[in-house]
């Protein structure tokens, strides 16, 4: 017995879970988020040993962060690639972006991992960018919904 037959709404998100209407802005915001996230992830992976001292962040932290971001970017890219993305997936991306923003700001304020001034500045800048992606993704969801009226 497949997972889908046990709980089709959970397994597939259900037919009503698709974002309908004008999804252009939403899909663009998701794709740009994926590109930026992937680029930051690749940069963290490639340069973790070279920039750890300048940023004050441990090499292992940067490498793990980079690997996570690359994998996350692939997922966000896939979600943004659909003409009718799953609403639950889009909401998950938005929610994770908001959590990432809050955690980044908290990390910068608390000085967790003892970043340098440059490291703190980069943490705050990427947090603001992530908040911007979440905001545009929310606008994209709203635009899709209102275009159906």
TrEMBL record:
The chain crosses the membrane at residues 34-55, 61-80, 92-113, 119-141. Keywords: Membrane, Transmembrane, Transmembrane helix. It comes from the Bacteria. This is Integral membrane protein.
């Amino acid at each position: 017995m497949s997972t889908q037959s046990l709980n089709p709404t959970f397994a597939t998100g259900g037919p009503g879970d698709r974002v309908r209407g004008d999804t252009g802005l939403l899909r663009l915001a998701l794709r740009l988020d994926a590109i930026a996230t992937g680029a930051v992830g690749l940069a963290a992976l490639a340069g973790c040993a070279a920039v750890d001292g300048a940023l004050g962040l441990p090499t292992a932290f940067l490498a793990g962060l980079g690997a996570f971001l690359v994998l996350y970017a692939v997922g966000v890219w896939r979600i943004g690639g659909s003409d009718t993305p799953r609403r639950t997936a889009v909401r998950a991306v938005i929610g994770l972006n908001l959590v990432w923003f809050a955690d980044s700001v908290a990390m910068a304020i608390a000085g967790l991992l003892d970043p340098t001034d440059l490291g703190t500045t980069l943490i705050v800048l990427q947090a603001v960018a992530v908040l911007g992606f979440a905001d545009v993704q929310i606008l994209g969801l709203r635009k899709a919904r209102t275009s159906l009226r």
